[in-house]
Structure formats: C-alpha cells, structure tokens
Amino acid sequence: MKKILILFAHPALEKSRVNRILIKELQKTERVTFHDLYESYPNFEIDVKYEQKLLLANDIVVFMHPMFWYSTPAILKEWQDLVLEHRWAYGREGDKLKGKYFVNFVSTGGKKDAYQSGGFNQHTIRQFLLPIEQTAKLCKMYFLPPFTISGTHSIEKAEVEKHKERIHKLIHYLQNDSLDIEETKELDTLNELFEKLVKE
Ligand SMILES: Cc1cc2nc3c(=O)[nH]c(=O)nc-3n(C[C@H](O)[C@H](O)[C@H](O)COP(=O)(O)O)c2cc1C
After folding, report:
1. Could you tell me which residues come within 8 angstroms of residue 129 by beta carbon, excluding any fewer than 6 positions away?
2. Do 35 and 6 touch, CB atoms closer than 8 A?
3. Is this prediction's pTM over 0.85?
4. CATH superfamily of 4-198
C-alpha cells in the first residue's frame, strides 16, 4: 500500500469554508502524512532537510490548496524553490523523487465551466498548473491531473462533504494502485476518471 504525503497550504484557514471541511480526518487516515505548511512555517522558514525526509518516506506527493491568482498560495512556491534541490530532486544525479506520483487537490472560486477555452478564465485548471506539472516531470515524477473542487463561493455544505468523501476514496485508489495512470494522462481533471470509477 502506497504512502501519501499531503502538503496542505491555506494562509487563512480560519476564514476557510471549503478546505477546512475537506481536511477533516486526513490526519487520522492510515498511511497519510498530513502536513500543514502555514502552520509549520508561519515565517516561511522551511526546514529543507525535514521536508526532503518526508518526501523520501512517501510514494505520492499531494499539493492541497485553494487556487490563488491562478496558482498556489505563496508557501508552496517557497517550498518548491527550497526543497527541490539540484542534484537531489533534479539534474543528472538528482533522482530522489523518481517514480513517485504527484497530484494537486485544488479548490477554485471559479466554477467548472469558467475553466475552459472560451470560458471566463480561458484555460483549464490543469493548464494553469503547467509550471507544477513540468516541475514534477523534471523531477522524474508521474504527474496526475488535478482533483478539483470548483465554484467554492456558492457551493453547498453538503456538496463539500461529498467532495471530502471523494478525496478519501481517491486516496484509497491511489494507495492501492487502482487508477490506470495511463488513462489519466490526457484528462483535464482526475474527477473525470474518478466519476467513472465511483458510479455515484
Ligand atoms: C488571494 C486570493 C486569490 C484567489 N484567486 C483565485 C483564482 O485565481 N481563481 C479562482 O478560481 N479562485 C480564486 N480565489 C478564490 C479561492 O480559490 C477560493 O476562495 C477558495 O478555493 C475557497 O476555499 P476555502 O473556503 O477553503 O478558503 C482566490 C481567493 C483569494 C483569497
């Protein structure tokens, strides 16, 4: 069974409606290490060696965050800048992350149909995450399309709870190698494949 590291980033969790619910119980999930970056590093003083140790101990790396300015909250950029060191994560001898999986769990204020060509935001969520996708690939990881929770401004609490359950199912599938990774390659979101699997 694969081990998952969830790097969670929300700078104002006290104001959160959605992620606050989504993260409930993740701490208690078996073989999941839930790591709240803003809580651990309120001054952005990231412990690089500790972060690298966590990465080595896990098979799947998740960035879990709200979308901020078509990207991640700032600490996840700082984390990448410091933790993904040359000759460790990338470069000729940098193979410590080789073969691990990478995925974003991302919530967006924008609704699903706003994230498409011709839509309000013109591009898909996956397209906005392109620098992260290529970073994961440079680090020889398998990049999976994001799992998305969209339309957060008007989402009902019951729908958020549903997404929470889906996240737990998704974690279970990922841990047990039940997803056909090849099949996910061209998808915009992991939700699509997941919806097929889960027949709700
Ligand atoms: C600083 C900031 C920037 C944001 N940028 C975006 C954005 O680029 N696209 C989007 O769809 N939503 C954006 N939002 C909305 C958040 O993604 C949304 O409020 C969040 O996913 C809701 O989750 P929460 O209830 O856990 O905070 C932004 C919100 C803030 C505060």
Report:
1. 104, 106, 146
2. yes
3. yes
4. Flavodoxin domain (3.40.50.360)
